[in-house]
Design goal:
alpha/beta, 2 domains, two-stranded antiparallel ribbon, elongated
Length: about 525
């Protein structure tokens, strides 16, 4: 058995060079597609694909995570900027770079204060509801391009509806190119996980366009130039981008955190979400300063990096350097049919549409199903402001959690004059009034009881307010002439209960209260 590569190794290996170049061959065409999804000219994706993975490599915790343009972050970027400018305009381009800087500052700041816990902040219900709806929106946004039409409409879904109603405008050649691309990308994964479907589709598309003098929608002129000074960015709008920037920083980190955590677990390696936050933040700062747009970690490209043999985090640096080396040749992409780009996005994100998983929530938890489906619906309805839908979903998830925490049921048993009360869940300042009322009602329902036992074996946690409420119930029971005892006290609750009882704390630990 070969030795597992040292996760702390910092030197560049041959595997890193091979993996980095392999990822770059996929990243270059993907970056063009995701730039258009974000509302920017396609070649701006190269700005977001060059320096960000190089910068992230210096701080990354995961040796596999590949950073750059990703579909979900691109869609969030489109939604965030739609309230301020027109897509593909000069103002939009500058706002995208400014938004990347805002996202970068948020992530670096969170990493420095050890805020990596946000990787676990969004509930599964919110993530599944949002991701499924966002994937539907992404596919819908690319369908007109894949069909070779320029659709009318103010929203993604309205443009989709226009496309459906104008089937006569669909371009047969674009459809054929799109089908070939989807087959190469999605079908190629079935042949082998390393099948270069994206690269082959791009090469085929460019060759066809050049040979046939294709007159349909193409990428067009690629006018790469050095980005303007950050001073020229619309800094007066930065406060308007704080909230969407924070949302992208949070939601966009969920995917790279998940990727890094999965790979670290599989290889039995340590992983630091705080370092990953910093690396992703620095990547966004690099993207903003180089004229790009918000970036994140890619599951597909990270998987390629791992499968090809990436050994250290420097494989990401190789990817960035490979993209930089390609920039002088970027003009080759001008003849690429845009239908190919649209189909690349569709093939990449269609599998994220997971309606069956949404349906399963109804069987698992009605409350969480409500959170998932409301987030799903809000994402579709509020499009393109899907950042607002995310905030709504997170708020609803927190509300459901608090509502459930406020409900601490109290079970009971009564036999031979002994009433046993069994509070369950968390007894804290929010739930203690409900618990106290339930216990009082149960005591009133059994006026012939001469002994009451408070069984705390089902209590997950109890705070000072809960302990004080329990002591009041015990004291009231004793004043009413009942024998009152507390039994089965969990270890985590004994200290606060002893403090509340001030030394007069009698328990029956692990003794049958009957």
């Amino acid at each position: 058995m070969s030795a597992r590569p040292d996760q702390h190794r910092v030197t560049l290996g041959r595997g890193d060079v091979i993996a980095g170049i392999s990822v770059a061959l996929v990243l270059i065409p993907q970056s063009l597609a995701y730039a258009e999804l974000a509302g920017l000219p396609a070649y701006y994706g190269l700005y977001a694909a060059a320096l960000p993975p190089l910068a992230a490599a210096f701080f990354a915790s995961s040796r596999y995570l590949q950073t750059g343009p990703v579909a979900m972050t691109a869609l969030l970027t489109f939604g965030a900027l739609s309230a301020f400018a027109d897509p593909f305009s000069e103002e939009w381009i500058k706002l995208a770079a400014l938004l990347a800087l805002v996202v970068g500052v948020f992530r670096v700041a969170l990493g420095l204060v050890r805020g990596g816990v946000i990787a676990y902040f969004m509930s599964q219900a919110v993530l599944v509801g949002f991701t499924t709806a966002a994937a539907i929106l992404i596919v819908s946004s690319q369908l007109p391009t894949a069909l070779g039409v320029v659709a009318d409409g103010d929203t993604i879904l309205s443009r989709l509806w226009w496309t459906v109603r104008h089937g006569g405008d669909w371009e047969p050649t674009a459809i054929v190119l799109s089908v070939i691309t989807v087959v190469l990308v999605a079908g190629g994964r079935r042949v082998h996980r390393l099948f270069p479907g994206v690269l082959i589709a791009v090469v085929v598309g460019i060759l066809y366009s050049v040979v046939s003098n294709y007159t349909g929608l193409r990428v067009g002129d690629v006018d790469l130039s050095f980005p303007g000074s950050p001073i020229d960015l619309p800094w007066g709008d930065v406060w308007s981008l704080i909230v969407p920037g924070a949302v992208i920083a949070l939601v966009g980190f969920a995917e790279p955190a998940s990727i890094a955590r999965i790979f670290a677990a599989q290889d039995r390696e340590r992983w630091s979400p705080n370092r990953e936050l910093i690396s992703q933040g620095v990547a966004n700062l690099a993207s903003g300063l180089s004229g790009g747009f918000p970036v994140g970690g890619s599951f597909s490209r990270s998987s390629i990096n791992r499968l090809v043999g990436g050994e250290t985090r420097w494989s990401g640096a190789v990817t960035g350097l490979a993209v930089i080396a390609f920039l002088p040749l970027a003009g080759l992409m001008s003849d690429l049919p845009r239908a190919v780009l649209g189909a690349i996005v569709i093939a990449a994100v269609a599998r994220l549409i997971d309606i069956p998983r949404l349906l399963r929530f109804w069987r698992l938890s009605r409350a969480q199903a409500l959170v998932a489906w409301i987030t799903f619906a809000a994402t579709l309805i509020l499009s393109p402001r899907i950042d607002v839908a995310v905030m709504l979903g997170i708020g609803l998830g927190i509300t459901v959690h608090l509502w459930r925490e406020l409900r601490a049921p109290v079970g009971s048993d009564y036999a031979d004059g002994v009433l046993v009360l069994r509070p369950q869940g968390v007894i804290f300042f929010g739930s203690s009034p409900d618990v106290a009322e339930a216990m009082t009602n149960l005591l009133a329902d059994h006026p012939d009881a001469d002994r009451v036992v408070f069984d705390l074996s089902g209590v997950g946690r109890i705070d000072l307010t809960g302990a004080l409420a329990l002591k009041t119930l015990v004291d009231d029971a004793r004043l009413a002439g009942l024998e009152a005892e507390v039994s089965y006290v969990p270890d985590h609750a004994e200290r606060v209960l002893r403090a509340v009882w001030e030394g007069d704390f009698a328990t029956q630990r692990d003794v049958d209260p009957a």
